[in-house]
Amino acid sequence: MSTYKREGGKMEPRSHMFPLSYAQMSMVYQQVFTTESLVNQVCFRLVFSGHIDSKLFNQALAIVSDHNEALRTIYLYESPGKTYQKVMPSRLIPLIPAKFDMVHPPYRSLLKELDISSCPMKLYFGIIEDKTILLYCWHHILMDGWSNLIFLNELFQVYQSLAARQQVALPPRSYYSDFIGYLQKKSVKRKNQAYWSEYLTNGPIASHQEEFIGNVGFVSMEYPCEEMDNAKLNVTASAIYYAAWALLLSFVEKTNYVCFGATFSGRNIPVKNIRTTIGMFINTLPICCRLSPDMYVTDFVTGIMMDILNHAEHEHISSTDIRRLMGRYDTAPLYRSIVVVENYPTGLQFPEGMEFKGYDIRECAAVSIVLGIVPIQNKLVIQYNRDEFEEADVHQLLSAYKKLIDSMIANPHVRIGYISM
Predict the structure, then answer these.
(1) Residue 274: strand, helix, or coil
(2) Predicted pLDDT of residue 106
(3) Torsion-angle region of residue 327: left (phi > 0), alpha (psi -120 to 50) or beta?
C-alpha cells in the first residue's frame, strides 16, 4: 500500500505502487487472457462550437494529469497473484491531431491501440468548419462515467483559466490510492463478505454467458426518465427500473427466478474527496429476484429497493467472491444482462465562447445486453451483441420494457401476474 508524507500541508504519495480495486482486478485478467477483446474499452466523442487553441489545451491536459494520479497510472500483471497499478511521475495521455474522419471515427481500430500497461487513454481532436471535435478513448480500468464528467470539467476549467491568463484553481487534490486503502481494511472485507454470503448462498446459479469480442449494436428510445412519477410506489426511480427489467427477464426466459448485474457507484464510503476523485470506483453486483404471480407490484418493487440500499452498504467485493458464492467456477461472464442507471452528477461547463453540440459514446461490455437509463437525456438505451440478437428483436425488447414501467406505475396495487408486456 502507498504511504504518505506531509509536505507544505498537503499529503503527497511516497510510494507510487498499490493494489488494484476489485473491479480493476477482473479487468486486468480479461485483458491478459482475452487479448483480442475490446471489452471494458470506451470511446467518447464530444462536439462543440468554436475552436480550441491546441497548445493551451495540451498544457491544460498536462495540468489536469498532474492533479489526478489516476490519469498517470499504468496497470501491470506479472502473475495471477501479482497485479498492481503504478502511478507515473509525468503525464501519459497524449493530445493527438486526428488524421481520420472525426464524424465517423474508426472506433475499433482506435480501441485496439490502447495498452493498459503503458497508455490506457488517448485524446484526439479535430476542427471541422466552425466546430471542434474531441474524441478520447480509454480503458474502463482508468475511470468510470462519473469520473469522465470530473475530467472534462477540470480540463475545460483549466483551459479557460490559461486562455484568460488567470491563475489556475482546481479542487483539493485527491488520491485514488486512498480508496484502495479503504478496500484493504479487514473490517470492511469481513462485513461485506458476511452480507453477500447471506444474500447469495443456496441461491440458484446464474445463467452461463459466453464472452464476445465486441460486435456491438445500439438501440435507444425516448422516455421521460427525469419526470417519472413514482409517488404511488413511494420508491426510488432505480428500484422501478430494476423491477421492470426483472419482470421482463422473467417473461422472456420463462422463469420465476432471475439474476442480472447492476452497477453501483462505489462512492458511498468514508474516503476524503471521493466524490471529486477520478478513478474506477464502480462495481457490478447481482440483483436476484424470485417472482410469483401473486406478489403485489408495491411489495415487489419495495423489496428490490431494499436490496439496492443494502447492496450500496456492502458494494465492495470481488467478482471472484461473488462467483464462488453463486456456485460459478468457470471464467465466463457472470451475467447475461446488466442494468446501468447513469445517475452521476451532471453539468458540463464549457469555456466561454463555446457551446455544446452533442456527444456519442461507444463502450464494449462483457455481456450480451447492457440496459442504460440516461435521465439527463430522457432516454433508454440498449447495447447488445449483434452476433446474438437482431436489431428488430432488441427494439421489441425495449418497447416491452417501457410498457412494463408504465404498467407498474399505473397499477401499483395489482398482482404482478396481471402485468403484461
Answers:
(1) helix
(2) 92
(3) left
Cα 137 to Cα 114, 178, 212, 342: the distances in Å are: 8, 26, 20, 19
**CA pair distance 156, 353, nearest whole angstrom:** 12
Give the full edge-to-edge strand order of the sheet including 131-139: 95-97, 121-128, 131-139, 41-49, 356-363
Q: Distance between CA 337 and CA 209 in Å, rounded?
A: 9
**Residue for cell digits 422501478?**
240
315 band by pLDDT with thresholds 50, 70 and 90: very high
pLDDT at 206: 52
> Which residue, among 126, 134, 119, has the nearest Cα to 41 in the 3D structure?
119
Say what the pLDDT of residue 36 is.
60
Contact in structure between 318 and 92 (CB atoms under 8 Å)? no
pTM to 2 decimal places: 0.87
Give the whole-angstrom CA distance, residue 153 versus residue 147: 10
Rounded Cα distance between 278 and 159, Å, is: 18
Helices and strands in the chain, H and E counts: 10, 16
